[in-house]
Amino acid sequence: MTVPASVDDGQKPLLSLRNINMTFGGVKALRNVRFGVLPGEVHCLAGENGSGKSTLIKIITGVYRPEPGAEIEFEGQTFSHMSPVTAQAAGIQVIWQDLALFPEMSVAENIAFQTLLGRWPRFVNYNTMRETAVKALARLGVTLDVDLPLKEFPIAQRQIVAIARALVGEAKLVFMDEPTASLTQSETDHLLGIVHTLSASGVAVVFVSHRLAEVLAISSRLTVLKDGALVGVYPTTGMTQSRITELMTGKTFDQTLRVRDITANPVMLDVSGLTRKGQFEDISFTVRRGETLGIIGLLGAGRTELALSLFGMLKPQSGTISLDGKPVRFSSNRDAIGAGIAYLSEDRLSLGLIQPQSIADNLVISSLDRITSHGLLSDGSKRELVARWIADLGVKIGLQSDAISTLSGGNQQRIAIAKWLATDPKLLILDAPTVGVDVGARAGIFDIVAKLADSGLAIILISDEVPEVYFNADRVLHMAKGRIANRFTPRDCTLHAIEAAVYA
Fold first, then answer.
1. Residue 1 pLDDT
2. What phi-psi label fits residue 200: left (phi over 0), alpha (psi between -120 and 50 degrees) or beta?
3. 125 φ, ψ to 5°?
4. 419 and 433 both lie in a single domain
5. What is the pLDDT of residue 229?
6. Which secondary structure element, helix H or strand E, spans residue 310, and what is its range?
7. 281 and 243, same structural domain?
8. Between residues 121 and 487, which one has the greater pLDDT?
9. Which residue range forms the structural domain that includes residue 40?
10. How far, in Å, CA of 382 to CA of 402, rounded?
11. What are the Cα distances from residue 6, in Å, to 222, 229, 257?
12. CA separation (Å) from 285 to 251, 319, 459?
């Protein structure tokens, strides 16, 4: 349903796009899209993976050239298309999800390096670079040691460095692509405060996020795309997360608690007194067959380190692990896989999948022994295995031989899950399985999780977002500073009670 909304509102737009069309290989990525941003506005660009958001941003920033007939108006000047140089000169900047920074270089060099770009070589004045960096950070109300290498700073502060670099480029419009995907709640709150600071100083911000609570908290208007077309432009006042989800997907999603009695199910995993100094201490819990155990906590709480210890990649100093009633000690993740433990990494892009490799190769890489005969891979067995899991998990693909990078984030995550299900595990550990995945794809992933649990698979669900574990887990452990701080049963407590404990 398209709701007409003007970008005028009595104020002349900073950016106005009309008749934007883009086709890739016969597929219409954008269809007659219009888009507008007001000066100093915080505007959200929303849509499922594959809706056309990134394509639209790349057209605005000159990476892609739209089809003839497009009109791009910026500060009253009209273009049929922009080049990257034109866009940057006009004051349009993008902070991509990967930040595109240089870890080995100092903070000052990262912030000020664009001031040195040009046709001719020149001497580097490091004092000037430092002054430039300090001034840019001061505009954000932030103080950092600009002489330290960027790699020594956590992701939240690297985000700030990327924003400061945009300000050095005299930014008038900044696109932020999933800026909070890897941040804790407190870090997210700080970043949103910086966005407010930018807006108050007259810099317009286009915010792209799958976290709908942030969308409602930070933006004044919302543009929704679906399948490359404009759904509508809406004020966020009075808007709800469920309404945004419905606009993005055309579907409604019911969030109901999982109320099941699994107390009679045998224990699959029994962890007692597990300790790895400096990361977690005295961790004890059980997971039953068919149970989904949620683990929540702020970044640095020790959740991933605990998961890696269960998966044999980190060795605990003390404590015991029993799987299916038998004590286990793993020397490597190979031992853990052999025992029936599967681990879906929180970093899908670099650890979970091999982006240049095919969909089929990614899916079978953890279960090669199942498709090998006399030391040789069986192409027929491989095709059958891949076809089975693609069908079972409802993955949308073109060809099995296509690179995994051609799939949307949600479908990539389904392949990552299928890769481990193909090993026939007893315990599946899901570490932040919805990072960078849109709302519709998230619902699909949790449908899969529910079906796997109902089939008897024991699951550990680690998440940064309390609602994910509240609505999808039978029990919830709250980790803080390497210890289990609280234990919750969702059907016996409120969502607010868990959020209050985690974010206190």
1. 35
2. alpha
3. -100, 100
4. no
5. 95
6. helix 303-310
7. no
8. 487
9. 1-89+205-252
10. 15
11. 12, 17, 40
12. 37, 12, 13
Residues 420 and 441 in one domain: no
Do residues 333 and 432 both lie within one domain?
Answer: yes
In a shared domain, residues 333 and 443: yes
Are 433 and 326 members of one domain?
yes
What is the C-alpha to C-alpha distance for residues 365 and 341, in angstroms, rounded to an integer? 15
Any domain includes 95? no
Residue 459 has what pLDDT?
97
Q: How far is CA 467 from the centre of its chain?
A: 16
Residue 163 lies in a domain: no
Tokens 């640095």 locate to 300
| Residue 161 belongs to some domain of the structure | no
Question: For residue 240, what are the contacts with CB-CB under 8 A and spacing of at least 6?
Answer: 216
- Coil vs helix vs strand at 65: coil
C-beta atoms surrounding 245 within 10 Å: 21
In a domain, 111, yes or no: no
- pLDDT tens profile 90-103: 999 998 877 889 99
Q: What's the total number of domains in the chain?
A: 3
> Based on the domain organization, do 435 and 325 belong to the same domain?
yes
In angstroms, the Cα distances linking 11 to 8, 39, 76, 172, 262 are: 5, 8, 12, 16, 59
Q: Which residue type occupies 317? A: Q
Token readout for 263 is 């107390």
Phi, psi of 289 (to 5 degrees): -55, 135
User: 24-54: per-residue pLDDT in tens?
Assistant: 878 899 999 999 999 999 999 999 877 899 8
* Contact in structure between 304 and 184 (CB atoms under 8 Å): no
CA 259 to chain centre: 28
pTM: 0.69
What does the CA dihedral 75, 118, 199, 204 come to, rounded to 10 degrees? 40
